[in-house]
Design a protein that fits this description.
four-stranded antiparallel sheet; 0% helix; mainly beta
Length: 124
């Protein structure tokens, strides 16, 4: 059974940090690129960051550049999103997704599997 399980969300004050984790199972982790997406209340889902399967090349949305960092640990089948300098506008449900590709995509429709999401709330 394919599973992507996110964790690490929570409530944090503006300027604080959180690290999200996404642990994958049921497929060959090394063959997949991974993305983080978010959906804020009343807004459409948007891409946050992604990491490719092989060379570890990354992409970041402009609104998180220099604040968020994506990484992965192939030995643990886990992808991370380190979020620093959080802002109230970062409040959203964050989703992890996996795409069977060497290269990661910023758009959700490319992805094959999705996690259930984890809530991130940033207070002002």
């Amino acid at each position: 059974e394919v599973q992507l399980v996110e964790s690490g969300g929570g409530l944090v004050q503006a300027g604080g940090s959180l690290r999200l984790s996404c642990t994958a199972s049921g497929f060959t982790f090394d063959d997949y690129a991974f993305g983080w997406f978010r959906r804020a209340p009343g807004k459409e889902r948007e891409g946050v960051s992604c990491i490719s399967s092989s060379r570890g090349t990354n992409w970041y949305a402009d609104f998180v550049k220099d604040r968020f960092s994506i990484s992965k640990d192939n030995a643990k089948n886990t992808v991370y999103l380190q979020m620093d300098s959080l802002k109230p506008e970062d409040t959203a449900v964050y989703y992890c997704a996996a795409e069977k590709s060497n290269y990661c995509a910023a758009y959700g429709h490319y992805y094959d599997y999705w996690g259930q999401g984890t809530q991130v709330t940033v207070s002002s």
